[in-house]
Amino acid sequence: MAPTELIRLQIGVVGLGRMGRRHALNILHLTPRANLLCACSPAQADIEWADQNLIQHGVHICSSFEEMVKIPGLEAVIIASSTGLHASQSLSALELGIHVLCEKPVTLDTHELQAIINKAQSIPETKMMVGFTRRFDDSYKDARLKIQEGQIGQPVVIRSHGVEEFDESGFFINYARQSGGIFVDSTIHDIDLALSFLGENIQPKKIWATGVIARYHEMKEFHDSDNAVGVVEFWGGEIAHFYNSRTGNQGYDNMTEIFGTGGKLTVNAVARKNRVEVTSKNTVQNDILPTWMDRYEQAFVNEVNAFTAAILDNKELPIKLTSALTSLKIGLALQESLVSGYPIRFDQEGNRIAPSASL
After folding, report:
1. Which of 208, 52, 167 is nearest to 176 (CA)?
2. Greatest CA separation for the chain
3. DSSP state string for 53-97
4. Do 292 and 183 meet the contact criterion of CB atoms below 8 Å apart?
5. Cα→Cα distances 322→12, 29, 114, 200, 334, Å
6. CB 122 within 8 A of CB 226
7. 280 lies in which domain range?
8. Res. 358: pLDDT tops 60
9. Is residue 308 part of a domain?
10. Which of 195, 192, 202, 198 lies closest to 349 in space, CA to CA?
11. Could you give phi then psi for residue 176, rounded to 5 degrees?
12. Is residue 228 part of a domain?
C-alpha cells in the first residue's frame, strides 16, 4: 500500500525584506506541513533574491499582492510587507477566504484593528493571527507552563527589557520615523509577553512612560526616544515594568523576570550566543547574541509550524486577535504618555478615562 500523501498548507509570503525572506526559507526547509506556493514584492532587489533562492523550488514570484492572491490553490499568506500595507492586505486576504499570519503591527489605529477583528470573526472558517514571535520561543513557553503550574505562586510584577545595538548605517533612523514609536514597535513584544503570563483578558488601569534621546538625536523631529521606560498597572493589581533601548553595544539583550507570591522566574538572564565560556586569568567570556533574529531564530520556525497546524487541524490559533488589540492599546498609550509626560487611565472594560495630570 502506498503511504498516505502528506496534506500541506499552500502559503504565500507578502514582502521579501529581511522578515519575509526568513519566513520564506523557513517554510521551504523547516515547515513540513506547508508548501511555499508563491511570494511577492515590488522591490527589484527582492525579486532578484527570489530568483536566486525560491524559483528553483517551484515558487511563483509576483511583483504585487493583487497578482499573488489570484494564484490558484493559495490557502494562507504571511504578511511581512511595509507596515502601512498590513491592514489592507489582511482585510483583502480575509475577504478572499485566505488565512492570515500578519507581522506586527497590523495597524497603528485601534479602531482599524477592531474592524479587522470583526471581519475575521464574521468568517470563522478563515483564521488570522498576529506574529508575536516570542510566544513561540522554547524558554518563554516553558516559563508560561511553570507559571500555569503555580511554581512561583501568583504573578505580581513583570520586568522585561530589550536592548538592541546602535545602528551606525542610518537604516534604523529612517525606519523609526514610520514605526509608530519605541513602545509600539519594540516594547509591544514585551507587552504581549506580559499578557501571555498574566492572562489574555487582563486590562490596564494606569499607564505611564518616560524616555531620553541618548544617540539618535534626529528623534526629536518625531517625538520618540531611543531609551524608554514604561510602567503598566493592571486592574488585577499586577504591575509590568518595560525598558527598551536602541543604543546598546553588547549585541541583542532581552531578559524577562516574573516575580510571584511564591518565587521568581527569569528568562535569558545572560544574553549569550551559546553555552560556551572562555575562562582566562581575569575574565570569563561568553559570545554575545548579534541580533534579535539570532535570538528568536527557532521561534520563527515554531510560529509558522503552529499557525500551519492550527489551520490544517482546524484548531484554535495560539494567539487571540483580541490580545493583539490589548497590546496595541497599551503600546499606543505608553507612546502617548512618553510624549505628554502624563499618565493615562482606563476603566475596567479597557476604555480610556479623561486625562489626568497627577500620578
Report:
1. 167
2. 74
3. HTGGGT-EEESSHHHHTTSTT--EEEE-S-HHHHHHHHHHHHHTT
4. no
5. 25, 31, 8, 8, 19
6. no
7. 135-292+321-345
8. no
9. no
10. 202
11. -60, -30
12. yes
The answer to whether residue 174 is domain-embedded is yes
Task: Return the SS3 of 141.
Answer: helix
Half-sphere exposure of residue 66: CA atoms within 13 angstroms, side-chain side: 0
Q: Are residues 186 and 106 in the same domain?
A: no
Q: Are residues 255 and 124 in the same domain?
A: no
Q: Mind listing the pLDDT tens digit for each residue in 27-44? A: 999 999 999 999 999 999
Which residue reads 516570542 in cell numbers?
134
Q: Indicate if the pLDDT at residue 2 is higher than 50.
A: no
- Which pLDDT score is estimated for 251? 87
334 neighbors 343 (Cβ within 8 angstroms): no
| Same domain (yes/no): 65, 53 | yes
What tens digit of pLDDT does each residue of 251-308 get?
Answer: 899 999 999 999 999 999 888 888 888 898 888 888 888 888 889 999 999 999 999 9
> Does residue 268 share a domain with residue 254?
yes
Asked if residue 328 and residue 189 are part of one domain, the reply reads yes
Q: How far apart are CA 116 and CA 130, in angstroms?
A: 12
The CATH number covering residue 103 comes to 3.40.50.720
Helix axes 18-30, 297-312, angle to 10 degrees: 60
Is residue 357 a part of any domain in this protein?
no
Domain boundary residue, one of 70, 105, 131: 131
Range list of H helices, the chain: 18-30, 44-53, 65-68, 83-95, 110-122, 138-148, 171-176, 182, 188-198, 292-295, 297-312, 321-340
pTM for this entry: 0.93
Query: Domains in the chain: how many in total?
Result: 2
Q: Which residues pair with 78 in a beta bridge?
A: 13, 101
First-residue to last-residue Cα distance in the chain:
72
Domain harbouring 154, CATH code? 3.30.360.10
Nearest CA among 92, 90, 86, 27 for reference residue 54: 27
Q: Are 187 and 162 in contact (CB under 8 A)?
A: yes
Among 131, 148, 169, give the residue marking a domain's end. 131
